[in-house]
Model the fold of this input.
Amino acid sequence: MNNKGISEVIAIVLIVLITVAAVTIVWQVVIPLVYESTSGVGDCVSAANEVVITGVCLNDTDSENKIIQFKVSYGSRDVGLSGIDIIAYDEKGDSKTFSVDEDLPAPNEEKILETEDVREFGPSGEITNEFTEGYAYALRVGDKTCTASGKQTLPKC
Done:
């Protein structure tokens, strides 16, 4: 009796089973990791397509405040916009984030919004810093923050 042919068949079957098991394990581990790392990307792309920010400028005409004003145009599709972050930069390149969470436009609406005062004050009321050199902005969709622009120079209104 020749067992050599049988052991070759068993070896091939074992190799196939090991390959299927390895693929299954990799599938179970890798696919959830890829899904987690890309979840929400579609939300950010949709928000960037539907929410347009223009006319960003520094309004310092009021002696009491220096604020950043900007126009928000919201497209027709609701993307769940929950806020807008304006990242303002000072002359040293340091930044401070000013969040606008209230009075956001609804779909098919345009609004002019503004930040709080972009100056920092010391304990005696003296100005210690002004974030008036540049800006970037980010959109918030639900609890996810989506980068929407790079750093740009902040013009006066």
Notes: Strands lie at 51-59, 67-74, 81-89, 95-100, 109-114, 119-121, 127-130, 134-141, 144-147, 152-153. The chain has two domains: 1-39, 43-153. The chain has a mean pLDDT of 86.
